[in-house]
Design goal:
The structure holds two protein chains of two kinds. Helix content of chain A is 74%, strand content 0%. By secondary structure, chain A is mostly helical. The longest helix of chain A is centred in the N-terminal third of the chain and has 30 residues. Chain B has one domain: Orthogonal Bundle (ABC transporter involved in vitamin B12 uptake, BtuC). Chain B is 70% helix and 3% strand. In chain B, helix 2 packs across helix 12, helix 3 runs antiparallel to helix 10 and helix 3 packs across helix 11. The radius of gyration of chain B is 22 Å and the shape is globular. The chains are: A mainly alpha, B mainly alpha. At the A-B interface, helix 4, helix 11 and helix 13 of A face helix 6, helix 11 and helix 13 of B.
């Protein structure tokens, strides 16, 4: 049995890598939801980010442009959602669903000529340390810069929401848009910014998949990760640090499936795959039963349309 | 100068007219996208919207795809009208197909007139049961039905995957992820020789008539509509809110389950992984486009079914990925939601000079 200490190190490293898109997308969506907007378009924004990043990499041969471009494409596509829900006051749920359906379709259309093109190797940091230190090497070193950013992001998000004035504004807008508006805060503007930020992070999450995790373009390659990211925000009860923990659990389940199959475990993989969804439902039930618990972190106005009489 | 005013009430004519605006804008938008991709937009749109239905076979395929969409959307209209956001119809469809398919597999080597009704009933009950989960959690644990119903979609799809790979896979099937073929007695009767359109369409039409009757002619329908308009009023009137939530979810789940059974006993004839090209999600668009009105939904299901067919035709003739159907479906909903703005707000173009003269 190869369950020695260095194998576990490599295993943890691969779990971290598989949780990156979840952390990025969920952290972005968390800010959006904290401002009171429920954007179900995560999957659509991620897949657009994935194709834009990959296409830009092929066209410009520049990974920096590809990464920035994928975030920009996330911003652009989320602008559709922002304009509809904030300026035209459309229903968040329906608009988000339309965004996902539209995004999956559009990405396949745009990606038609990019299927089968091999990706480019993405530079990894501290690759020499990865090999030389047993156990901690594969965990701490030899990752892309996006992974390090992803693991810092929940802490930054937490700091932003709890310690900065802007973070307070975002929470105020999400919890009580009417009072925030009476305080002179431009609710619509804040929500626009949070939606666009969420779009950028989802775009980056998609680019991580197509440029780093599995460097190639495959139709529908996000494969439901956007929905898991959405579940993750709820699972984490809208707390950034718990997003990180949840992403590692959900990412861990994905990696575990592969290894369980290899070892020959008799648990059907489908049951493991269903775990993130079932766990999210259980968490939802637990937090929703107690109205105090759900009030603690849940943005009170989540998904509700805000309209100010001019 | 443009002035925007909130309307006091929604003009009904406009309410039913804006879906047509959305469809026209979608076709224009599609043309622009085709042009950008380097196709002749007129020709591409012709392949999309005209070629597929220019023969009898195409029309039959259109009705075949519209049937599940119509059924599910009819069910969803009950939920949406009463402000219950069931977006997990895809899961209810899948679970209905699993239960119905399970019954069909029990009778795989038997024939008998009673088998098909049993299979259909099992499918409806399966879908109903699966929809009860978010409904019960919503009523008794106060959970968000959007998230629960959505999560359950993936649970049901994974369950189906497990069954067709594992315990239910065809023993003579060379390990393909599919079950045995159902016996002929478990199959929907075909309406015409050589066409795939089957008796399931009568289920959809029956659902349309029944839903119209329930929504517009019964006390339950009245309760549903009032609760959708104002929960406070519904409570004041003494309606049993919890029971109503359970009922609308059960109706919705049963319809989705029927759609699932219709697919597996109709064109498919067995269980495998790909029993639905996301009909459950697309039906949400159908419900909105049809304005949650039973007859509007018939029309909308035909329009949205055409985007599925068009995508298939465009894939064959223009080598565009089949997913383009989703671009159109997404655009329809975008434009429809956007045009709703006109329902709630009046856009007035004021002539400044005249106004200044008056004052």
């Amino acid at each position: 049995m190869s369950l020695d200490i260095s194998f576990i190190g490599i295993l943890i490293g691969s779990i971290m890598a598989s949780s990156v898109p979840l952390i990025l997308a969920a952290s972005g969506e968390l800010i959006t939801e904290r401002s009171g907007v429920l954007n179900l378009g995560v999957e659509g924004m991620m897949i657009i980010g994935a194709i834009s990043g990959f296409a830009l990499m092929v066209i410009t041969d520049n990974l920096f442009i590809a990464i920035v471009g994928s975030m920009l494409s996330g911003v652009i596509i989320s602008l559709i959602f922002g304009f509809l829900t904030q300026s035209l006051l459309t229903n968040h749920v329906a608009t988000g669903l339309a965004l996902t359906i539209f995004g999956i379709g559009l990405s396949a259309m745009l990606g038609k000529n990019f299927v089968g093109i091999p990706g480019k190797e993405f530079p990894i940091l501290f690759s020499s340390l990865r090999e030389s230190i047993p156990f901690f090497g594969p965990i701490l070193f030899g990752h892309s810069i996006v992974l390090y950013f992803a693991f810092a992001l929940p802490f930054l998000t937490n700091y932003f929401l709890k310690k900065t004035k802007l973070g307070l504004v975002v929470r105020a807008v999400g919890d009580s848009p009417v009072s925030a508006s009476n305080q002179g805060i431009n609710v619509i503007l804040v929500r626009y910014c949070c939606i666009l930020y969420g779009g950028a992070m989802c775009g980056l999450a998609g680019a991580y998949l197509s440029l780093i995790y599995t460097p190639q373009w495959i139709e529908n390659m996000t494969a439901g990760r956007g929905w898991i990211a959405l579940a993750l925000v709820v699972f984490a009860t809208w707390s950034p640090i718990k997003v990180l923990i949840g992403a590692l659990i959900f990412g861990g389940i994905t990696i575990l499936q592969l290894h369980m199959q290899a070892i020959g475990f008799r648990i059907p993989v489908q049951f493991l795959s269903a775990l993130p969804y079932l766990m999210t439902i259980i968490v939802l039930v637990v937090i929703s039963r107690d109205s105090r618990k759900i009030k603690l972190n849940t943005p009170t106005s989540l998904g509700r349309i805000f309209y100010k009489e001019k | 100068m443009i002035k925007i005013e909130k309307r006091n009430d929604v003009p009904m004519a406009l309410y039913f007219f804006t879906p047509f605006i959305a469809i026209i804008l979608t076709i224009l938008g599609g043309g622009i996208i085709f042009y950008i991709l380097g196709f002749n937009p007129i020709e591409a749109l012709k392949f999309y919207f005209i070629t597929p239905i220019s023969n009898l076979y195409g029309l039959s395929e259109l009705l075949l795809k519209a049937t599940p969409l119509c059924l599910i959307a009819i069910g969803l209209s009950f939920c949406f009208k009463s402000n219950n956001w069931n977006i997990g119809a895809e899961g209810q469809l899948t679970f209905g197909a699993i239960v119905g398919g399970g019954v069909a597999l029990l009778f795989y080597n038997q024939e008998g007139f009673y088998i098909l009704p049993l299979v259909i009933l099992a499918g409806a009950i399966g879908g109903m049961f699966f929809a009860l989960i978010p409904a019960i959690l919503k009523t008794y644990f106060n959970t968000n039905e959007i998230l629960v119903s959505l999560m359950l979609v993936y649970v049901s799809k994974l369950l189906l995957d497990y069954l067709v790979v594992g315990p239910w896979s065809n023993p003579e099937g060379f390990n393909f992820p599919e079950t045995r073929q159902f016996s002929d007695s478990s199959r929907m009767p075909l309406l015409f020789e050589g066409l795939r359109i089957h008796a399931g369409i009568f289920l959809a039409l029956g659902a349309v008539m029944l839903s119209w009757f329930i929504l517009y002619k019964t006390y339950l329908g009245f309760q549903i509509k009032v609760s959708g308009l104002s929960l406070k009023t519904a409570k004041y009137a003494g309606f049993k809110g919890k029971t109503m939530i359970l009922v609308v979810f059960m109706i919705s789940g049963a319809c989705a389950g029927l759609a699932g059974v219709g697919e597996i006993t109709g064109p498919i004839g067995q269980l495998h992984r790909m029993i639905s090209p996301d009909y459950g999600f697309t039906a949400i668009i159908v419900a909105f486009l049809g304005r949650l009105n039973p007859f509007g939904i018939i029309f909308a299901s035909l329009v949205v079914a055409l985007t599925y067919l068009g995508a298939e035709t465009a894939q064959i003739f223009l080598q565009i990925p089949k997913y383009t159907g989703q671009v159109f479906q997404g655009m329809i909903l975008f434009f429809l939601l956007a045009s709703d703005y006109l329902l709630f707000f009046k856009v007035k173009i004021l002539n400044l000079k005249k106004n200044e003269l008056r004052h």
